[in-house]
Amino acid sequence: MSDKEPELNIENTLWDSEENFHHMFQKHNAVVLLIEPVSGQIMDANMAAESFYGYSVERLRQMNITDINTLPPEQVMQERQRALQAKRNYFIFPHRLAGGQTRTVEVHSSPATLKGRQFLFSIIHDITERKQAEDLLLKSKENYDKLVASIPVGVYVLHTGQGVFAFEYVSPRMAEILDVKVEDLLAHPDILVKKIHPDDMKSFAQNSTVTNGEFQPIKWKGRVFVDGNVKWLHIISSPELQENNDVNWHGLVTDITERKQAEDALLASEQSLNTLFETMSEGVALNEVVYDENGEMIDYRVLNVNRAFYATADYRGKNVVGAFATQLYGMSSEFIKEFWKGHKEKKSTAYTEMVSPLENRWFFVTTSPFINDRFVTSFFDITERKQAEEKIRQLNADLEKRVDERTHELREAQEQLVRHEKLAVLGQMASTIGHELRNPLGVISGAVYYLNLVQPNADDKIKQYLGIIDQEVRTSEKIISDLLDFARIKSIDREVVSVSELIDQTLLRFPVPASVHVSIEIAENLPRAYVDPRQMIQILGNLVTNAWQAMSSAETENSGQLSLYSTLQNDMINITVKDNGAGITTENMKKIFEPLFTTKAKGIGLGLAVSRKLAEANDGRIEVESEAGRGSSFHLLLPIFKEIQ
Amino acid sequence: MNKNLQILIVDDDRRMTRTLSDILKVSGYDVIEASSGPDALEKVRTMTFDCVLSDIKMPEMDGVELHRRLYEMRPGLPVVLMTAYAADELIHTGLEEGVAGVFDKPLNLNHLLGFFTSLAKNRMIVIVDDDEAFCKTLDDILYQRGFHVTMVTDPHIDITSFIAESQVILLDLKLNSITGLDMLKDIRRKNPAMPVLMVTGHREEMADSIKAALAIDAYACLYKPLEIPQLLKLLAELQKQRLRDLIKHPTS
């Protein structure tokens, strides 16, 4: 440089200044490089460059800029050309240091002429950290935007203060929710207010509250009109007090229309379910399973019941909700364990019939499957049905019983019919034979009578035999009469007749042996009977004859006592024939009125059968009391004559 | 009047008629036997009887039919039937038609004899009328029909003696010196149950007396000239009642 003298003066001057410049250059804190613009050769470097790059100034003076700049040499040269032409003086380049690290540097490069030579004067700042922070910020902003864009929540920042109401930030989602452009909302913040549903305006306005001098966060749910439709919005906004006492509201706006609709639908559904639940005629209970420490279900608790539950089960006024099944229904834990275990496994609805401890009512109980340890039981009162069933069951039982009875009766009737048939045949035969026998018997008795008449002084032997014949004729006649009477009842010829007359006639026609003491007692003012006297005399004759025969055959022969007495008994005349004879055994008691039953050596056992038949034909009846060994009382009950007024 | 009762016994069983006949004869009755209905009718035509005792069941003609024929001939002749059979229908018809009673076979002979004893008493129909011609005619007619008749033409006679033997009294309301009504009162005093038939030819004039007589239980009032069938019917009715009573309550 010293060989160019002519210019030196100026240059010296310059140099002087150059000297100063050089000094400045050398000592400047910033990294400065002098670069030959064409080749890129580093002409000089200062101390700061030396420490930054890690190369000595000497080493740097031998290096080309491309040795430092990691970009391709052509690109570096192009950029250098631009700097030379002063088209551009600011670049960001990656520079490699001696240690091998690359730093992002900011290069301010301007052409300069020194001693007639062009240079590029480059000031280099290490901006690696700044760059990294910038990049991070950028990235963060990008992420934030992405985030804001990706969440379905509108975000805003609203600035409020004295006469200020303006959005500082509106996220695209928020604009979208309100169906406006971000710019419009930023320009006209009152768009939001205008869109609010009038009914919800009040709640919106009241939302911003100040407590103890501090703004409180806003929470608002309300409706806005968007494009003619109602949208439900949920806004949460947090206040941030500014230094000038203005407030920045950081808000989140959520479109909850769908959720709201779903909620409404749910509510409606819940309401209708509730209405259904409450208006059901069946009692319904919602229950929750109760487990013991081993996880076994031992009970359940009633969570809720409908109105009908109280009515049907008559738990009115009782604490049902929260009650345990073991208490409420009186179930045993064992029962619950068994039943519910099975039920839980089946996962189907169970139907059971149970009787309620209250009022002894029957319920048809439906038990739903378990869902999350909960289940529903419904109670349908079937007491009436049960009662009807029970009635039917009883009726059936009764019917069966009656069928049995009727069968028995029929069988008896059939047997009786057979017996009657036999008797009818017998009667017919007896009737014919009897009638034919009566004529010769009449002749015999007549002959005996005659002999008695004409031989009043015959010897005793003859009289005795005549007596025997006469008695035997009478006995024969009696048998025939009984047979005939039994075979066919004669027509009844009713008359008004007194009891004393009947008794007198009876004793006249059926004489009692002298050995028997007869007493007669007839109540005073006894009304007269309305009967066929002949038939009554026949009955009484039978009874009287039976009586004395019972006494003469019995061991108690010594004191035969025959009592005939008559009283009024329940609107009927009772004529009693009482003896103290052998009496009738309990066994025989049932049979004495059966035809052909007899305990006598003589007789065919028709007397009482005929007597009963005759008594009944006259609207009367015969009753008997007897005890073996104690004698018998036969009561002939006869209808009273009632005068027709 | 005191002669024995004439009894006709009818039965196709000769041993029966024979035995009965013997018993009744021994007991003091006059007895004729007939072996059949036609035989009995023939005998009644030619003889006088006080009573007919007939079996019901006989060949040719049964007892009820026999009674029917006899009633036509002699309405005043009592007929009693005997039966060994419970021939209810037939017996019922007989009783309806006026049979005095029915005895069951074999006969209760004491009962039967008691009945005849009663029958022998009180069998007279007494006619009290001062019109002798009327009395005579009536006597003939009634006797023909089997009734026993006593005539009283003198109203002043003491009637006490024949009241005892009478079964019925025919009393004229207008007598010579005493009114029939007064006599009726007298009879009533002596025998309140005695059936009395009043007779009068003066229906209008005697109306009050008739009323008074009926008031003290005159059985009926007849007007002259007498309607004989009506009289016979009344007498038969009265006799039947009496005989029925006799059978039920024989004077033994």
Q: What is the β-strand count of chain A?
A: 24
Rg over alpha carbons of chain A = 70 Å
Question: N-to-C terminal Cα separation of chain B, in Å?
Answer: 21 Å
Parts with pLDDT < 50 across at least 5 consecutive residues of chain B? none
What global shape of chain B is seen?
A: elongated
Structural class of chain B: alpha/beta
Series of secondary-structure elements of chain B, N-terminal to C-terminal: EHEHEHEHEHEHEHEHEHEH
Q: Describe the largest sheet of chain A.
A: 5 strands, antiparallel
Distance between the termini of chain A: 186 Å
Q: What's the pLDDT, averaged over the residues of chain B?
A: 85
Spans of chain A of at least 5 consecutive residues whose pLDDT stays below 50 are: 1-8
Mean pLDDT of chain A: 83
- State the oligomer: heterodimer
- Kindly name the structural category of chain A: alpha+beta
Walk me through the structure.
The complex is a heterodimer of chains A (645) and B (252). Chain A is an alpha+beta fold and 645 residues long. Helix content of chain A is 45%, strand content 27%. Chain A contains 20 helices and 24 strands. Chain A is rod-shaped. The N and C termini of chain A lie far apart (186 Å). Chain B is α/β, with parallel strands linked by helices. Helix content of chain B is 45%, strand content 20%. In chain B, helix 4 links the parallel strand 4 and strand 5. In chain B, helix 2 packs parallel to helix 3 and helix 3 packs parallel to helix 4. Chain B is elongated, with a radius of gyration of 19 Å. Classes of the chains: A alpha+beta (645), B alpha/beta (252).
Please tag this protein with its features.
heterodimer, A: 645 residues, alpha+beta, five-stranded antiparallel β-sheet, 20 helices, 24 strands, 45% helix, 27% strand, disordered N terminus, B: 252 residues, alpha/beta, five-stranded parallel β-sheet, 10 helices, 10 strands, elongated
